[in-house]
Write a structure and sequence with these properties.
Strand content: under 5%
Number of strands: 0
Shape: globular
Order of helices and strands: HHHHHHHHHHHHH
Radius of gyration: 19 Å
Length: 226
């Protein structure tokens, strides 16, 4: 495929189909992602295509998960309006598409704070999880103006019964508050210990558990060891 020539959606879809691997699909589907393309190969294709905003929009419109992941790699994040990004999030079915949309596109958008506030309290738990992910990013990088005790109040009240994806995002925020903000650390640890969310989550050797008390304690240990 010649990236300098006009690239057609059928050409791209044909190349994605050629990259499809049944074993990769099987692994991805266990995580809720309905595609079988190795992400390293997908990134290599995106590197060849380079930035193509019109093609990215057309690929997104196919409703194909691999095509949408590719679209998020070749788009111009600042070219999307807020309502377009909102619609894209609500269309994103797979966890990987949502994750890449939030991290690779929305975080680079001039509309990021407005979307964070709009999504945070959305009644759709999948949309709300994106709002929590953006809030977690602010907790770590731009906490000024955030009500950290208020966030802990919401986490304490709602995280245990939250749907999986929202629960995961709230737990990440809890851990980030405990890691980055010593004045809130004792309360974050206490909430994690009482709610016990993800306490039994299977963790591979050498990886840190997502259980907030373990996560917070380990990351603080690493910070003090530097």
């Amino acid at each position: 495929m010649n990236p300098t020539a006009q690239t057609s959606v059928p050409d791209v879809l044909a190349e994605l189909a050629a990259l499809e691997d049944p074993r990769t699909r099987e692994v991805n589907e266990r995580r809720g992602d309905d595609h079988g393309v190795n992400l390293g190969k997908l990134r290599a294709l995106a590197k060849r295509l380079r930035t193509q905003q019109d093609l990215a929009r057309e690929l997104w419109a196919t409703d194909d998960t691999a095509a949408r992941l590719l679209a998020l790699l070749i788009c111009r994040p600042k070219a999307f309006e807020a309502d377009e990004l909102d619609a894209m999030l609500r269309q994103a079915r797979s966890p990987k598409v949502q994750d890449w949309l939030v991290n690779y596109v929305v975080k680079k958008s001039p509309h990021v704070e407005a979307l964070r506030q709009a999504w945070f309290a959305d009644p759709d738990p999948v949309v709300a999880s994106a709002g929590w992910a953006l809030t977690t990013d602010r907790v770590a990088k731009k906490p000024a103006g955030l009500d950290l005790p208020g966030l802990l109040d919401v986490i304490e009240a709602d995280m245990r019964e939250a749907p999986d994806r929202l629960q995961w995002a709230m737990n990440h925020c809890l851990a980030q508050i405990g890691i980055e903000h010593p004045d809130q650390r004792a309360r974050a640890l206490d909430i994690g210990e009482r709610l016990k969310v993800l306490e039994d989550y299977p963790t591979a050797p050498g990886c840190t558990s997502p259980y907030a008390p373990i996560w917070i304690t380990e990351m603080v240990r690493r910070q003090t060891a530097r």
